[in-house]
Amino acid sequence: MEYTNEYVSPLGKILLASDGHALTGLWFEGQKYFAAKLDPDHEEKKLPVFARTAEWLALYFDGEKPAFIPPLTLKGTPFQKEVWEILLEIPFGQTTTYAEIAAEIARRRGLASMSAQAVGTQSHLPYHPMSQGRRVGRQPDGVCGWHRKERMASGNGKTSAGECDIIYVMAMSSALTEDKRGGELAHRDIYPNGCIGRSPRARKTAGFSSLHCGFKQLRRKEPHMAQKKKVTATVISQKQIGEQIYDLWLETKLAKDAHPGQFVAVYPRGESMLLPRPISICETDREKNRLRLVYRVAGKGTAEFSTCKAGDRLDILGVLGNGFPVDRAKGKHVFLMGGGIGIPPMLELAKAIGEKKQILLGYRNKDLFLEEDLAEYGDVYVATEDGSVGTKGNVMDIIKAYSLHADVIMACGPMPMLRAIKKYAAENGIEAYISLEERMACGVGACLGCVCRTTKVDAHSHVHNARICTEGPVFEAGEVAD
């Protein structure tokens, strides 16, 4: 007889299954392979193992490394169990390859060699195809790694912020990551948090600081550590202010906790879209408990948000991210630089900084937005790619055109713009902070799609990686690797 229980996570409902003593299955509601091999005659029941698992999951989703393991029952062939046993022996924060595991099995069996591919197919069960040639696998009997189904937002292999449809099956035993080539990169075991990859390159890149792997996160002196809460917000108003650009005001108590550069994750109401969409906070009204979100429609999720009217309700998770270090601007001449959809977070930042500041904004064309709002808090300079308004070019061209100077730069925008700012700041000895939120997908540290290379090594995981949505989105420019 099998028993089930439901756990509500930040990413959706999770069905837990047990034989009465140990956990036998774990699935997100609606995922592929949902309730695979679950006894049709199962019964819903409260059990100690479910309580223990719920405690583990609560710590997991809070970014902690649980110090205990709920009892598990994994069913598989003798060969699968042999592979899984070796996975469990990978030391915390270290990596290995399928080839090395195959060599270890061959040694134990007294064989001359063993196929690395055979190990790969047994460490996670048969593949299924994904768009853009990406493929992942599922783990034994529902107590699985995660299944990832990704619809790329554009045909060039790049994902737009928040518009990557991702369905996860969170694992009690492993996780999977992918590299820029789009291929399978590494299988990670979170008991005791080692990981394996298919190549030396995979071994170097796989061990990034991760909630899933329990790796110690990169820590800096951050102005604000986000306190996450999932709440239901009420739409006050919404209007279109540009081509596919919408201005949304929400009533929520989260407004009292918001700081410049932070963001919230907004949940779509459609059942086909599981993960929330991260949207930067444009402005706050703490007295009236209001948040202003200005966003671009870039996919199904944000398209749904654009239809909201006054009185509608949206579930949001926040406040997320670290925000800009406003105190670093005290007594200094500041550049606030925003490009495209990176302009909205500049408004709350401009309100918070009382020092002399120049606000440099980059647009594609004359379809401007928020420039009048920002003009109330500083001197605004505009650049457009086609030269239809202001300086022709980008924000860096504004600096040259007007011979501007600053002691501190705070910026948000597309990656080419941020790279140019980083280079300019380094060449001129300017303190700079850049928000990399353009690259975020889920916004809650789950998808690992926003990992960036850093110049600093995490002392615990010994890697040069950080998740933008949890360790950022704001970084000192010098911390971000080119």
Helices, strands, pairings?
Layout: E1 3-9, E2 12-18, E3 23-28, E4 43-44, H1 48-61, H2 78-87, E5 95-97, H3 98-109, H4 116-123, E6 128-129, E7 135-136, E8 149-151, E9 165-167, E10 174-178, E11 184-189, E12 194-197, H5 200-206, E13 229-242, E14 245-251, E15 263-266, E16 277-285, E17 290-296, H6 300-305, E18 313-320, E19 334-339, H7 345-352, E20 357-363, H8 371-375, E21 379-384, E22 391-392, H9 395-402, E23 408-412, H10 415-428, E24 431-435, E25 451-453, E26 465-467, H11 468-471, E27 474-476
Parallel strand pairs: 1-4, 5-12, 19-20, 19-23, 20-21, 21-22, 23-24
Antiparallel strand pairs: 1-2, 2-3, 6-7, 8-9, 10-11, 11-12, 13-14, 13-18, 14-17, 15-16, 15-18, 16-17, 24-27, 25-26
Features:
six-stranded antiparallel β-barrel; seven-stranded mixed beta sheet; alpha/beta; globular; 482 residues; 27 strands
Structure write-up:
It is a single chain. The protein has a seven-stranded mixed beta sheet, with helices on both faces. Strands 13-14-17-16-15-18 form a six-stranded antiparallel barrel. The N and C termini lie far apart (55 Å). The model is unreliable at 124-222 (pLDDT under 50). The protein contains eleven helices and 27 strands. The chain has 482 residues and is an alpha/beta fold.
* Sequence stretches where pLDDT stays below 50 over 5 or more residues: 124-222
* Beta-strand content: 25-35%
Shape: globular
Q: What would the average pLDDT be, to the nearest integer?
A: 76
Annotation, overall tally of beta strands: 27
Our measurement of the CA-to-CA distance between the termini, rounded to an integer number of angstroms, reads 55 Å
By DSSP (H or I, 4+ residues per run), the number of helices equals 11
Largest sheet: 7 strands, mixed
Main-sheet strand order equals 22-21-20-19-23-24-27
| Structure classification | alpha/beta
Percent helix: 10-25%
Q: Provide the gyration radius in Å.
A: 24 Å
